[in-house]
Amino acid sequence: MKIVFLFIAFLIIQFSFAQTAEETHRKPLKVIQNAFPRDTSFTPYQAWIKIKKEFPQAQIVRPILPEGVLAENNIVYVTLPETAYGKRDLQLDLFSPAKPGKYPALLLIHGGGWRSGNKSMQVPMAQQIAAKGYVTASVEYRLSPEALYPAAVYDIKAAIRFLRANAKKYNIDPDKIAITGSSAGGQLAALIGATAGVEKFEGNEGNPGVSSAVQAIIDMDGILDFDTPDEKGKDEESAKRSAGALWFGTTFNQNSEKWIEASPIHYVGENTPPMLFINSALPRFHFGRDSVITILDKYKIYSEVHTIENTPHPFWLFHPWFEPTVGYMVNFLDKVLK
User: Fold this and answer.
1) Which CATH number is 57's domain given?
2) pLDDT at residue 235 above 70?
3) HSE-up of 4 (CA within 13 Å, CB side)?
4) What is the pTM of this model?
C-alpha cells in the first residue's frame, strides 16, 4: 500500500512539473535578460497556437543536426562597446559540412515583426541547408525593444562582413554569400541585399573595409514596399501601434520618410543579385514583389517566385511546408551560386 501511495504521489509531482513547464512555455513574456529588453511573444509554439485550428496538419519543425554537419553555437560576430544597455555581444550559430572544402554561405534572419523572435527559429533550416553543401549562419540582431531602425540593418551587415573576413576559418567562399529571411527577416534580407555600398546602411560595426555585398537574396513573405494602404492605415485603426511603427519609432503618417527609406523596392536595380521569393497564400505579404520583379526583368537579373498555396504566414516553421521550402531554397542557391 505504501509503495502504491508513493507511486501515485510521484505521478502527481511529475504531472504538476510538466504542466508548469508547458504553461511557462506558452505564455508570451516581455522580460529583461542580460540587461537588455526582449519580447518573447513570437515563438514557434505561439505561432502554432494561432494557426492550429485552421491548419490542423501543422507540426512544429524541430532542430535536428544532420549527419556530416558540424555546429558551432553562439559565435560572437561583433561586440558593441556602447549601447543604451552597455556592452553588447551579438552572436550567430554556424553550421557547415564536415568534409573539408570551400563552400557558399547563407545568412539566415528570423522574423517576429522586428520586435520578437530569436536566432534559434532559423536553426532547423540552417541545419538542413548545410547538409546540402553550404555554410549557414543563423544570426542574432537587435530588435525594436532594444534599438530602433536602422540598428538591425547595421547588425546584419556586420554579420556578413564577419563571415567574409573569416571565410578561410569557416571554409566559406567569400565571393558566394547569400542572405535569406522570413517575414520581417525577409524585408531585412531584401533591403540589405539591395543596398551593398550604400553608406547610410553600412554602419560602423566590425571589419571596416570588408564588403557587405551578397550574391543572392531569398525573401520569404517579407514586404518590399511599405508605401501601401495596409501599412499606412494600421495605426489609424487602433490605439495599438503596429510592428512597423514600433520599429521605426513613428507611424507612417507621422513620418513616412523612414518607412519609404526602408522599403527595399527603392534600391533594386542593375546591381541587385538574383532573388527568390517564397510566399504564403496571404497577399498582404507580397507587397512590392511584382514591381521588384519588373525591375529585375528590366536588367535581366534572374528571379524565381514560389507561392505555397493554403499556407499560414509563418509556413517555414512548420511541416508539411518546411521541406518544400528548403527544396526551393537549395535549388535556387545551386543554380545561382554553384
Assistant:
1) 3.40.50.1820
2) no
3) 1
4) 0.88
